[in-house]
UniProtKB/TrEMBL annotation:
Protein name: Protocatechuate 3,4-dioxygenase subunit alpha
Pfam families per UniProt: Dioxygenase_C
The keyword Cytoplasm belongs to this UniProt entry's keyword annotation: no
Organism domain of life: Bacteria
Family to which this protein belongs: Belongs to the intradiol ring-cleavage dioxygenase family.
SUPFAM superfamilies in the record: Aromatic compound dioxygenase
Length: 170
């Protein structure tokens, strides 16, 4: 019997351009009241105009794949390096887990996509007990916490350099 191996991630090709667009890509909930915005920066502090950001989240009650809610969004950065999603604030999935968005970053120069999380600044109590967030050194946790804005949250992603976003090896 032969050993089955995982299919490796591909950095280049095959290219299926027709499969990249996702219907309503950045709109996770059409009438969502949370706007997640941000920018992607490279190691030199320059905006990345061609990154692809994906988020996965539960609904407001912490349920994945709830009826009428798919919880997935995909958005390319604009030429000026900005991205935006419309959604709802996720609920905690499990006891002791703070509400957060799972974020995946695809960008030029990366051999593999990057995984991170965005936590909410107004969830101080839940953030204080989240096992994943608290496994990150205290001086770096701020890179995982979105800043409250008038209509949502701003979450900038820094691929390298000072204040590099924490990425997880998953």
């Amino acid at each position: 019997m032969s050993v089955q191996r995982l299919t490796p991630s591909q950095t280049l090709g095959p290219f299926y351009g027709f499969a990249l667009p996702y219907e309503d890509d950045s709109i996770i909930v059409r009438d969502g009241d949370l706007h997640v915005t941000g920018s992607v920066y490279d190691g030199a502090g320059q905006l990345v105009p061609d990154a692809l950001i994906e988020i996965l989240q539960p609904d407001g009650r912490g349920r994945f794949h709830a009826e009428g809610f798919h919880g997935f969004g995909r958005c390319s950065t604009r030429p000026e390096g900005h991205f935006a999603f419309t959604t709802v604030k996720p609920g905690p999935v499990a006891e002791g887990e703070a509400p957060h968005l799972a974020v995946i970053v695809h960008a030029r120069g990366l051999l593999l996509h990057l995984h991170t999380r965005m936590y909410f600044a107004d969830e101080t109590e839940a953030n204080a007990t989240d096992l994943v967030l608290n496994a990150v050194p205290e001086q770096r946790r701020h890179t995982l916490i979105g800043e409250a804005t008038e209509d949502g949250v701003r979450f900038d992603i820094r691929l390298q350099g000072e204040n590099e976003t924490v990425f997880f090896d998953v």
